[in-house]
Amino acid sequence: MVSMTGGQALIRSLYREGVKTIFGLPGVQLYHALDAIHGEPAIRFISTRHEQAAAYMADGFARASGIVGTALVVPGPGLLNASAGVGTAYSASSPILVVSGQIRSDRLGLNYGELHEVDDQIDFIRPLTKWSKRVVQTAEIPTVVHEAFVQLYTGRPRPVEIEVPEDILGEIADVELLEPERPQHPLANSEVILEAAGILAASSRPAIWAGGGAISSGASEILQRLAEYLQAPVATSREGKGVIPEDHYLSAGAPNFTHDSLDDLVAGADVVLAVGTRLATNNLPESQLIVHIDIDPDEIGRRYSNTLAVIGDARRTLDAIFSAVSNIVPKQDSRRMEMEEYRAGRFGDSATVEPQGSLVRAIREATPEDGIVIEGNTQIGYVSGVHFPVYVPRTYLTSSYFGNLGFAYPTALGAKVAQPDRTVVAISGDGGFLYNSQELATAVQHGINVIAIVFNDHAFGNVLRDQKNMFDGHVIGSELHNPDFVKLAEAYGARGVRAVDDRALTLALKDAQKLDVPTVIEVPVGEMPYAW
To answer: What residues contact residue 91 under an 8 Å CB cut-off, 6+ apart?
Structure first.
C-alpha cells in the first residue's frame, strides 16, 4: 500500500486502466483530482467550455478508437449538463466513463443547499448508464475504478459513472492500486452455433442485418467473409455503416425513414442473420425467421418472435458460425448481377432529391476513405445516412435513437483527439451547430483541427417545412436569427470560409485538410424538399 490523496488514487487508477486523455471542466469539488492530473504528465486533460461537450467528446473518442472515453465533471449542474452526451453514448452503445465530483460525504442527503447539491444525483444518471457507483472511502477508489472498467469491457459497451465526494478526494489514506483486467468476450453456446449454421446453410436467399455491435466487436472482416460465402446482401443500421465497405456489391446500405427497396430486399430473404443490432425496423414480415447474434440477450426477440437467440460476442461467434457453415455447404452462387442492379437503383444520382444529394456527394468526393464523418441531426445528415458511402469501420458516427441537436461538433472533436492523423468532418445545421459552437474555443486552444460544415437555412429546417406542410403554414419557433458563421469562426481564432454550392464545398473541404487549423465551412442553403 502507498499513502496518497483520494485524487491521486483516482487518477493513478485511471492511468493504470489505460486512460491517457480526460475531457472535462474544473470545479471546486474536483480540485484534488485536477491536482493529481497535474502530477501525472502522461494524462492529457482537455478542458471544454461546457460539460455537455465533455461527454460528447468522450463519446467521439471512444467510438473512433475503440478505447474508453473519459469525462470529468462537477456534481449537480455539471453532471446534468453532461447527461445529453451520456444519453447519446447509451443509445449508441458507446463505452464512456463519467467521473463526477460530489459534495462532502458528511453532507449527503441532508439537503443543506450545498454548492452543486442534487439529492440524489445517482438516481437521475442511472437510466443513462449501465452501472454507477459512489465512493464512500478513499481506500476503495481503486476497487471502484477497477469495477467500472470491468463493466465497460464486459458485455454490451455502455456508459458507466462513478462519483467521489470532495472530502474523499482530498483525504490521505493508504491505498493499494490494482492491475487492470480485460475479460474475454464470450463465445455463444456451441449447440446454438451449430443450429444457426444449419439454418444459414439450408437457406436459399439469406440476408444480413448488421448494427453497431458488429463494429464494436471488431467483426467486420469475418462478417464480410461470411456474406461472400453465403452471397447474402448486408444491410446495416446507421451505426453499422462501414462494417462492410459500401462499394462492395453485397452492401445493401442503411434504411431511410420510410419504406424503400431495402425493406423489400431484406423481407425477401428466407432467413435474416442479425448481428449486434436492435433490428430497428418494423418492415419485415412478423413471421420472418431471424438468427440473432448479440451480446445483450435483452435485444434478442424484442421485435420479432421467430428468432433463434445466439448470445455472444459478434466476432467470435461469427467466426465459429463461418467454420461450421463452410463444413456443411460450398460457397454459394454469385448474386452480383442482381445486387448491382439493386444498388444502381437505390444509390444512383437520381435516387436523391436536390440539393441534398449533390451536397452529400460533394462531401464524399473530398473526404478520404478513412476520414471520419459525424452525422448531425440536420437535413444533409439524414440523407448522408443512406447516400454517403462508408468504407471503413468507426468512420461514421451518429447520435443513434437519441437524435439530439448539438451532438456533431463536440463528438467530432473527440474523434479527432483519438485519431489525430485522420480527416474529421462534422455535418451540422445552423441550429444544431449553435448548441456547442463555443467549443471552437476548445478546438483552437487544444489544436483539434476538425472541419465543421454548417448548412445554414436560418431555421430548424425540418421543423419549418413540416409546420408549413402539416399545419397550414403555422410557423412558430423554427425560424432562426444567426451570426455570420465565417466571422464567428474567426472571432475564436479558427478559419471561416463560405461555400455557395456543392462544387465550392468540395474545394473548400479539400483546402481545409491542407491547413493546420480548425475550420468552419458555412454553406448557405434555402428551404429543402422532403428527402424521402
So the answer is: 399, 400, 401, 402
Residue linked to cell 467466426: 319
Sequence-separated (6 or more) residues with CB below 8 Å from residue 504: none
**Digit-coded pLDDT (tens) for 252-295:** 999 988 878 898 899 899 999 999 999 988 778 888 999 999 99
To 10 degrees, the CA torsion angle through 146, 107, 22, 374? Answer: 100
**Domains of the chain as residue ranges with CATH:** 2-175 (3.40.50.970), 190-346 (3.40.50.1220), 351-524 (3.40.50.970)
**Chain centroid to CA 120: how far?**
28
Average pLDDT, the chain: 96
Distance of CA 182 to the CA centre of its chain: 22
| DSSP-assigned letter for residue 389 | -
- 289 phi and psi, to 5 degrees? -75, 125
3-state class of 151 per DSSP? helix
pLDDT tens by residue, 495-532? 999 999 999 999 999 999 999 999 999 999 999 898 87
pTM of this structure: 0.96
Cα(313)–Cα(317) distance, integer angstroms? 6
- Cα angle 42-419-49, degrees, rounded to a multiple of 5: 70
For the chain, state the CA radius of gyration: 24
